[in-house]
Amino acid sequence: MSEVATPLRVLLAKVGFDGHDRGLKVVARILRDAGVEVLYLGLRQTADTIAAATLQEDADVVALSVHNGAHLTIVPEVVAAIRAAGLHTPVVVGGIVPSVDIPRLEEAGAAAVLGPGASASEVVAAVRAAADSRSVEVAGRRSHLPEQSEER
Amino acid sequence: MSGVPLDPVYGPPDAELPGEWPYTRGPYASMYRSKLWTMRQFAGFGTAVDTNERFRELLRSGGSGLSTAFDMPTLMGRDSDHPLARGEVGRAGVAVDTLADVEDLFSGIDLGTVTTSMTINSAAAIVLAMYVVLADRSGVDRRRLGGTIQNDILKEYQAQKEYVFPPRPSLRLVTDVVRFCETELPRWHPISISGYHIREAGSTAAQELAFTLANGFAYVEAIRATGLEVDQFAPRLSFFFNAHIDFFEEIAKFRAGRRIWARWMRDRYGATDARAMQLRFHTQTAGVSLTAQQPEVNIARVAIEALAGVLGGTQSLHTDAFDEALALPTESSARIALRTQQVVAHETGVAHVADPLGGSWFVESLTDELERRAEAVFAHLERLGDGSMLDGVVAAIEEGWFQAEIADSAYRFQRKLDAGRFVVVGVNGFTDGDETRPPTLYIDPAVEARQLARLAAVKHQRGNRKVDAALSRIRAEAADPCTNLMPAFIEAAGAYATVGEIVAVLEQTFGAWNESARV
Predict the structure, then answer these.
(1) A44 interfaces chain B, CB cutoff of 8 Å
(2) Which of A110, B109, B238, B287 could form a disulfide with A105 if both were Cys (CB 3.0 to 4.6 A apart)?
(3) CATH 3.40.50.280, domain A9-138, yes or no
(4) Mind listing the pLDDT tens digit for each residue in B201-235?
(5) Domain with B390 in it: what CATH number?
(6) How buried is residue B364: exposed, middle or buried, by Cβ count under 10 Å (0-12/13-18/19+)?
(7) B116 pairs with which residues across the strands?
């Protein structure tokens, strides 16, 4: 575990036409209460806008909310776009995801999948765990910086 | 069951009666004794052919009306081949791109006898135009078409967020539909003023009531501004509320809603026809109250919520399926949901007496309190609009007031859950035994490919000259706010123009709406 000197920066977004933003807004405030710095991108994002914002804002975790049934399309695309930007930022997914799809999202690179009824402490724990796993993964490297050369 | 003779209604001799102004106790004197509520189950997924099968199954099972759920691209007025639609086609509702899909959707169903509800807002006028063309071509007189189109754009900005254009041009589309229905579809309900989504997005019951009725007043003012009289159009306005789990508060909400509407319509807007003062509503049980944990327990929640809707005097009801926190309902879970309200209707006896809770000190007091709270919201909006509810509601949308109020309530409720001050069975209490995972509806990813092929084929077969002419007409008429766009939409629908093509043309004139991203 690395010492957290600066607050965790978490980017929150929804992809596509899905307008159900209740969960995303509640999660934003739960994270803020826990001392997390929230970068709220909001509705109608694409994999590319999320990847660009992750790079530009130096986010530690990307939190995606999905209520449109398109998680099997959206999550792999967002993970791929983030990786293509040379980043290893973990992606945490929340929303309505049938349990049979959860392993598929994890295979696609989701660090965690939170369903309906997740408590505030579960949300905060999942985001922190995702950030920590990434710190371990890139231990020894300077985190947050794009590392295009290693990706290609 | 014991054979006790029942009066149609109870109360002291001087009590307000159902069917009497201000209709707190119900819009009709005999309520369900003369006619049960309509059991209208919302359905839609996959392609139009898939949903058509579900519609027929619901009608076979004793459902008395249809209700269509559209997928998110359709709700947003975009075609299935739009880049942002990837993965969403046919997922959370049925995909409709052209008249060809509407033809499939209602295949084998007599539009002259069934009533159809269509839950769509930004693209409402266009989809209604497609339905009218289908009726025309099937030889069904427009005057026989019965149903409802949601066409409530204001709550989209506030809660559901499926908006395309800015509020003012969107309101023009709403009033175009109302004016068209006034002359062409006299049995149609041209707006379903909806609190459901406001509640699902996190509001309290009091906010749902206040915001929804405020939107209703805004529509009344917008429609009156087109030259129609309230007594002409208001009888066709209908409402759509949420039935949540706080049983008595929900019943009080419905009763307060009827009373407020009656008072405002008569005293503020000068209605003289009783039907223009009577609030009639559809109810859906609260999707947001359903849990992914121990999902079978949701059947109990839905039954209690359905009962609240009925004791509150609803005119139609959708009962949610128990697996909706997991996925769209299966055919089996959808049937259990319908059966649940059939139990309420036929076994419990609650339909025998109108407003059985009228006169309860508790329910009457709650009704009064919800009315007071709603009036406080109306006063705020009226100040904001300088005396106009229409301007007040639009201004409050533009400044994000509704959105912030709703998000605050959602957050406060989550905090209550986290602190254990509200117990949801299976979620933050009584969590043992969450092993069952019912099979959920599987939507074949091939649906998207099938719909894309369908769209491509229709575009290939149609006459593009007719489409271009129809789109040019829409472009020209959109620029003139006094022209009703419905005839142009009907021409375009008949030429198999796509929803997305029509919306794109409108967007050139109307512009697009984006809310500022904030929490």
Answers:
(1) yes
(2) A110
(3) yes
(4) 999 999 999 999 999 999 999 999 999 999 999 99
(5) 3.20.20.240
(6) middle
(7) B66, B147
